[in-house]
Each structure stands twice: as structure tokens, then as C-alpha cells.
UniProtKB/TrEMBL annotation:
Single GO term (MF): ATP binding
Pfam families found in the cross-reference section: NAD_kinase, NAD_kinase_C
A single BP term in Gene Ontology: NADP+ biosynthetic process
Entries under SUPFAM superfamilies matching the protein: NAD kinase/diacylglycerol kinase-like
InterPro entries hit by this protein: AcoX-like, ATP-NAD_kinase_N, NAD/diacylglycerol_kinase_sf, NADK, Put_ATP-NAD_kin
Top-level taxonomic group: Bacteria
Gene3D superfamilies tied to this protein: Probable inorganic polyphosphate/atp-NAD kinase, domain 1
Protein name in the entry: ATP-NAD/AcoX kinase
Length: 376
């Protein structure tokens, strides 16, 4: 009889709720986010991972949590599962994640898979530490920790390798989180909370986000001046988050939401710190372009801290109307790894794949790959 792979599963159903409605986090904000119209996405992202395991269904048993913290997905996808913990309330809490992680780890799972953000990683780390191998499915607003796969699809592919018995190395990765209150004020204060053991497949697992402002001030000034000169009349420019785009806003003399999304038209600030719904209304049926940068060290263009750029918004703007900005040093930090799109819509992620021009200075473009070729 073949030994089954014992997989722990925890889904934080409230993860990422604050992103699309501009709250820049979900810690303690779930009820407010839901009231603003946020749609829970963690279940969908966990499903994308688990679907990669369907051909191996008879080789694994899942140890999970009642309701929408795991049980629901197991039943819908037909996995053999065992309940280990039941939350006391339908609106789950960090304590539920911690208690579930402790019980599941004690059951002796081969790997604990969890869907959430940095807060969820902190909760799991606080009770599991480096005793149990873990892997995160990115579903939160902020993903600074190195314990997450680069996308739900990547998490599923890496797990499939493990379940199939392929050799995969291990390493310890940092659990990072930021002060969400300071984050909402435009300040990033990241702190290390510990380490957890993860599968060490670098093409599937993301790097820890590199914090700090771009040091190449002269390059940024030239880049910002060039972008400002490119801007056309009667076109709406969606200005993504980050210090590189902030340099363009400074060149325009406009107030900027460093960690949010603003909209500019005819040299004026049309809308500030918009939500996904507001943004879609602004760009639909109107000539629009997106100015965006990538996260240093990780390479994510979409899906990390800019959930306001929803799949609907990106489609409304169009791939050909995306202007990607990055200094060459920022690209060199990737060591040849591709840029990444994790929009929450696998079809869109695949549509975005391919070579894309990146503006790296004054009228200076390089061609760089967005997405892995074999994920189509």
C-alpha cells in the first residue's frame, strides 16, 4: 500500500479583504472591508493551488479546518480530508489560525499549506516555528515574507512535485510583517518575526521584499522627467504605488499616495487613493494608461500591495497601455528571474506573459520577460 502524503491546510477567509477597497491591509479591518464591498478571494486562490493536486488525489490526505477555512474546498474538490479544528464563530480570527496550526502540526503532517498574507504567516510561525515544513499561498494585501510561493499556481505545482515523490530541498525563510497603521500613512516599517522551514525551489518561492527607497536619484529624476514628457492630453493615467512612480508624481508637482493608486489627467490629480471599484469606473470607456513599477527583490508587477489594479481594471486598460518603470539595478536584483503577475485571474496572468518593454531611464528601454514560459 502506498503511503499517503499528509497535507495540512488552513485558509484565512478574511485575507486580502482590505486591498481592493484601498484599506492597505486586513488586520482588524475585515468588517469595514466587507461593508465597503470587498469580495473574499482567499478561497479562490487556495482553489487554484489545490486544483494542481487533483491528478494526485489518491496519494494524499488533507488535515484541515471546518467551514471556509479548508473543509469547504476539500469537499468541493473531492479530497480525502480529516477535520482537526472547528472555529467558534463564522467570522474567524487570528486565534483560530494559531489554534488550527498547532493542532494540525501536532498531527504530524508532511507539510502545512496556508492561504493568507503576512499576518497569517505570523500566526502560523508563532505556534509552528521551524518544526513543520510550511508553504504559503499568497492571498493577502502585503506579502513581504519569504515563506510564500510566487503565486497560487506555483504553490500547487511545487506541492505536486512533493506529493509525486520528487526530490525537493528545504531551507528556512524569514517571516516578515509591517505596521499596517504606519503603512496606511505611507510608511513601510517591516519587522522580522521568525523563520519557518519551506521547500527550497527558487522558481516557485518568492524572495523577501527588499525595503527602502531607490538610491539612484539621478536615474529616477531622468526617468520621471521622460515619463512626464510622454503624457498625452485627455488620457487618464493610473499611477501605481511605489517610490519609482512617486518620482513621476513629484516631477508633475502632484500629491502622491506612495502606497496607493492615484489617477492623473491633463496634468491634474483626478482621483486620489482609489479603490478597485472607483478605478474601474474611471477607466472604462475612457482612453487610459497604467504607469507601474515592480517590487524590488521579488519582481511582482501585479498582486502585491496593488490589489486596486483588479483583473477588470487591467483588462479595461489593456496590456499595450501599461508603462512599466524600473531602474536597471532593480532588474539586476532579480538575477535573471522573470517579472511576475499574480492578479488572482490565471487566464489574465497568462495573457500578460511575454516580453515587455521596461523604461529604465531617459528614453532608455530594455526588454524583459513577464511570467514563466511553461505556465501557459
Amino acid at each position: 500500500m502506498t503511503t499517503q502524503f499528509r497535507l495540512g491546510l488552513i485558509v484565512n477567509p478574511l485575507a486580502g479583504l482590505g486591498g481592493s477597497v484601498g484599506l492597505k491591509g486586513s488586520d482588524g479591518m475585515a468588517e469595514q472591508a466587507l461593508a465597503l464591498g470587498a469580495v473574499p478571494m482567499a478561497q479562490q486562490r487556495a482553489r487554484q493551488s489545490l486544483e494542481q493536486l487533483l491528478p494526485l488525489r489518491d496519494k494524499l490526505q488533507i488535515f484541515t479546518v471546518a467551514g471556509d477555512m479548508g473543509q469547504q474546498l476539500c469537499e468541493e474538490l473531492g479530497f480525502d480530508y480529516q477535520l482537526c479544528y472547528t472555529p467558534a464563530d463564522s467570522l474567524t480570527t487570528a486565534a483560530d489560525t494559531e489554534q488550527a496550526a498547532a493542532v494540525i502540526a501536532e498531527s504530524g503532517v508532511d507539510l502545512l499549506l496556508f492561504a493568507g498574507g503576512d499576518g497569517t504567516a505570523r500566526n502560523v510561525c508563532s505556534v509552528v516555528g521551524a518544526k513543520t515544513t510550511v508553504l504559503g499561498i499568497p492571498a493577502g494585501c502585503k506579502i513581504h515574507s519569504g515563506v510564500y510561493a510566487i503565486s497560487p499556481l506555483a504553490a500547487g505545482k511545487l506541492l505536486a512535485k512533493l506529493v509525486a515523490g520528487e526530490l525537493v530541498s528545504q531551507q528556512e525563510a524569514a517571516v516578515m510583517d509591517i505596521d499596517e497603521g504606519a503603512f496606511r500613512e505611507g510608511v513601510v516599517k517591516a519587522r522580522r518575526y521568525g523563520e519557518m522551514r519551506i521547500p527550497a525551489e527558487l522558481r516557485y518561492v518568492q524572495s523577501v521584499k527588499m525595503a527602502g527607497k531607490e538610491s539612484e536619484e539621478l536615474v529616477l529624476d531622468d526617468l520621471a522627467a521622460y515619463v512626464a514628457g510622454l503624457m498625452e492630453p485627455d488620457v487618464r493615467y493610473v499611477m501605481g504605488s511605489g517610490s519609482t512612480v512617486a518620482a513621476v508624481m513629484a516631477e508633475l508637482g502632484l500629491d502622491n499616495t506612495l502606497l496607493g493608486v492615484d489617477v492623473v489627467e491633463n496634468g491634474q490629480l483626478l482621483a486620489k487613493d482609489v479603490t478597485a471599484a472607483q478605478l474601474l469606473e474611471l477607466v472604462q470607456n475612457t482612453p487610459s494608461k497604467l504607469i507601474i513599477t515592480l517590487i524590488g527583490g521579488q519582481g511582482h508587477v501585479f498582486g502585491r500591495g496593488n490589489q486596486q489594479l483588479s483583473p477588470a481594471v487591467i483588462r479595461a486598460i489593456g496590456r499595450d497601455n501599461i508603462l512599466l518603470l524600473a531602474t536597471k539595478s532593480k532588474l539586476q536584483q532579480l538575477n535573471g528571474r522573470p517579472l511576475l503577475a499574480d492578479t488572482g485571474d490565471i487566464v489574465l496572468d497568462r495573457e500578460l506573459q511575454g516580453l515587455i518593454p521596461v523604461l529604465t531611464g531617459y528614453n532608455d528601454y530594455v526588454i524583459y520577460r513577464l511570467g514563466y514560459e511553461d505556465e501557459a
